[in-house]
Amino acid sequence: MNNKEQFKSWVLSNLTEKSGAGPAYITSIEWLSDRFYEHNKISKKSIFEIEDIDLITKLHTEVKKIQRDKDSIIYNKNAPSYGERYFYSASLSKYKEFLQFKNNGSIVERTKKKVVFNNEKFNINSFNENILESGLVFSETLISRFAASLLTKPFVLLTGLSGSGKTKIAQSFVKWICEDESQYKIIPIGADWTNREPLLGYPNGLDSLEYISPDSGALNLIIEASNNTDKPYFLILDEMNLSHVERYFADFLSVMESDDKINLYSGASRKDLDGNAIPNEIFWSKNLFIIGTVNIDETTYMFSPKVLDRANTIEFRVNETNIRSFFDLPSKIDLSVLESKGASMAKNFLEISQDNLIEKDDENSEILVKFFNELKKVGAEFGYRTAVEMLLLIKKLNTISDISKNESVDIAVMQKLLPKLHGSRSKVSKVLDALILLCLKDGQTFSIAKIDEVLAENIKYPIAFEKLVRMYKNALDNGFTSYAEA
């Protein structure tokens, strides 16, 4: 059995039946073999003939840099999705893993070993590649934004189109970085939540020694996180705005900005119905991350500035490239293939999250002051907290990815400044004009009537620009606009 057949058997035995990544790996390596051989990158006609792990590592590093470049030697105009969805780099990573495994035993039978979680450097590219096996489609930039937002502040809101992957990206990341399911909870928010009891429970008024813990498991997770500060823990609050967030989440919003504790009860110590001791107060430990998903329709509530000011808000959109990429390589979603793949990076992930030293950057400061001055005209200016968090977000983006300086400012503006912007057409139209101009390169002019004439190369901050244009059009069509869109 040659390497190709051995690799095929090994891959299929290491993926679940639901995953469609196996055939895509074979196709990717065959395409890369042709392109690399033609350009004298390899001496053999097929990568499957190569067993030099160092060479495969070198090719993998190069492919990561060029796979989405339409001018690169490996770009396939007839199947662009392989590059867009990182199958080229993922296939080489998987082939390298196969070669390493081959040197240590059977290559056909899947062996189950006890997983040992070493302390590795957090690598977002590893998550990019692993997520392919699950069948999910997310851009590299979106994944970097999500991870950097968590590293900046442990409260992230995911909003946007229903069914665009808000809950799935949260689920996939926590499965990937956690050792087991005890480190996370996915909690669907009820439409009748009017207080904190669904998250924190309440003391039994008829028994002074008993505490009623919530069925959601949130309280137990919070306590567990405070007792194991060397591991990350995650609360995913699904459909977070089905109830008024300010009511059931008020205690969390309060302690988020301070090191205060949340009081659960007073008096004698209490235990829950399972006999577990419940402390009389809890705190938001630095290893606890809360992710909220948000949909906008007639059944939901809008967030107040108090909530938006305390979170990084990421909007999910699906464009033509995304949907074409999915239809080119449709596959079933299977998150089980991600389980604990990044657990060895969890400790470093926490270390990065706790590095909150801000470095002075005069250029960024000048840019953000310009946005401040325009937002101030409609009462949407930002305070010191937002300023600090924008600078931290830029720093974390630059730490975990190779995003450019302009891209990082673009993301910071989109996630921290624009969510609070809303108002009537008469109130915001002039400010939207000014903000859109700030998103263009110097010397450009703008008119909403000539939006189609704006060239991509003249846009300095494309993510914020696109959002502001949509908000402007909503203001013209509806007489009112806001960041949130149905």
**Counting H and I runs of at least 4 residues, what is the number of helices?**
20
The CATH architecture classification of the largest domain is: 3-Layer(aba) Sandwich
Globular, elongated, flat, extended or rod-shaped: what is the shape? globular
Total tally of structural domains = 3
Amount of helix: 40-55%
Key structural traits:
five-stranded parallel β-sheet, 20 helices, 486 residues, Rossmann fold, alpha/beta
What's the layout of helices and strands?
Elements: H1 3-14, H2 21-38, H3 53-66, H4 81-84, H5 87-102, H6 124-130, H7 140-152, E1 155-160, H8 166-177, E2 184-188, H9 197-200, E3 202-203, E4 211-212, H10 218-227, E5 233-238, H11 245-248, H12 250-256, E6 262-263, E7 270-271, E8 277-278, E9 281-282, E10 288-294, H13 305-308, E11 312-316, H14 320-328, H15 346-353, H16 362-376, H17 384-400, H18 405-417, E12 422-424, H19 425-438, H20 462-478, E13 480-482
Parallel strand pairs: 1-10, 1-11, 2-5, 5-10
Antiparallel strand pairs: 3-4, 6-9, 7-8, 12-13
Helix pairs in contact: 2-5, 3-5, 7-17, 16-19, 17-18, 18-20, 19-20
Descriptive account of the structure:
By secondary structure, the chain is an alpha/beta fold. The chain folds into 3 domains: 3-113, no CATH class; 126-349, 3-Layer(aba) Sandwich (Rossmann fold), CATH 3.40.50; 358-482, no CATH class. The chain has 20 helices and 13 strands. The strands form 5 sheets. Strands 2-5-10-1-11 form a 5-stranded parallel β-sheet, sandwiched between helices. The chain has a two-stranded antiparallel sheet with strand order 3-4. Helix 7 crosses helix 17, helix 18 runs parallel beside helix 20 and helix 19 (425-438) packs antiparallel against helix 20 (462-478). The radius of gyration is 25 Å and the shape is globular. Residues 106-114 have low confidence and may be disordered.
